[in-house]
Description:
The chain is an all-alpha fold. The protein has a single domain, classed as Farnesyl Diphosphate Synthase, CATH 1.10.600. The protein contains 14 helices and 2 strands; from the N terminus they run ααααββαααααααααα. It is globular. The relative contact order is 0.12. Bound molecules: geranylgeranyl diphosphate. Geranylgeranyl diphosphate binds near residues 169 and 230.
Amino acid sequence: MKPGSQPPPNTGLHGRLFELREVVERRLPELLPPLEREPRQVHAAMHYALTSPGKRLRPILTLAVAEIFGARQGRHLDLACTVEMVHAASLILDDLPSMDDAALRRGRPTTHREFGEATALLASFGLLNRAFSLLADRGQRLKLRRYSTEDMVHHMADAIGSSGLIGGQALDLESRPEELDLERLEFIHSHKTGALFLAAGELGAMAADARRRDLEIISRYAKNLGLAFQITDDLLDVLSTPEETGKDVQQDEARITFVKLLGVVGAQALAAELLEFAVGSLEPLGRRADPLRSIARFVEGRGH
Length: 304
Ligand code: GRG
């Protein structure tokens, strides 16, 4: 470690997943415009939001999926990083005063608290556009047989759009607590959180030119993983301290969450069930899907 640099945060990731996180960490800042280039404030906010210490679980998922289908890491790393860029862009928006009004994210002031709202908004759109520009460029370089660059761009755009993240977020904001039953809550979060996990997994399979039926296996796995992840996020909110999550805790007080509907034990049971489905769908891939089983175990561990 360089003198003066910070130790990596304790993400709870081990083995290959930890190594993949390191690889992503090193690459992310290299993919953004340099800090000294104008508009400096927007570029600083893009770097701030993207490189603050997150788990990098979504790009790890992309890389792990691509690896099990035999892709070489150097070829799909930047594609995996585009998923983290979209995630960082969504976190900036999610934290805004008109949305969650959060003060703290990843143990630091949220982007709008640090740079002001206008710069935070521009940084979010800057990250999204950088992600799509990279996706188009790196997708083309892969010269795949089964998938086109357009397939990748479509998948990502759909994941973010009003039938994905934006849709889930909109329904989350507009739903009155008394309208929320388990079915609606699952619908909201399979879009708001699940859609990007799905895109991350599918992008990994496409980047490795996986067969269509293997892509379907990954889609089933990633859908269940994404929803389980959100449930464990709700569990963390009640079971952890701000030091552990890096977020304002009990931020969910006014919101309906899986824990509020099902209780801690019920939410843990639902997460476990979804993860069992996720892991069950990997059966045809045999032992080579072990890294994806490790990701599922990691997610389950967060909710205890
Ligand atoms: C236009 C990209 C875009 C989005 C607009 C604001 C919005 C619509 C959607 C919100 C999506 C969102 C932030 C969902 C929450 C997902 C979630 C559980 C985030 C926490 O993820 P972690 O724990 O965070 O992986 P780290 O910090 O580790 O990356």
